[in-house]
User: Which sequence fits this backbone?
């Protein structure tokens, strides 16, 4: 699992969670204690991968609205109520 955060110079934020080499299926992506969306991992070219992107000003249909602060929060990925990944983001 990987987390990428981008604070843009115009004040916008972007958060991307990527899963590689995990079993295919759906994973809950959380910011703080709240599930914000579902990361879909699928098999493609012999590798399982998936990603979910949030942006506070989405430009593409694949980006979900990021409507809460990311900095200082924990980012998590779980499946079936089992926590698989968690990372704390640095404070604001």
Assistant:
């Amino acid at each position: 699992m990987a987390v990428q955060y981008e604070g843009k110079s115009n004040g916008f934020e972007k958060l991307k969670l990527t899963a590689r080499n995990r079993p295919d299926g759906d994973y809950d992506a959380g910011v703080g204690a709240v599930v914000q969306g579902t990361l879909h991992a699928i098999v493609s070219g012999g590798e399982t991968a998936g990603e979910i992107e949030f942006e506070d000003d989405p430009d593409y249909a694949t980006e979900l609205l990021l409507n809460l602060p990311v900095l200082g929060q924990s980012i998590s990925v779980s499946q079936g109520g089992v926590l698989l990944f968690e990372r704390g983001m640095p404070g604001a």
Summary: The longest strand covers residues 34-44.
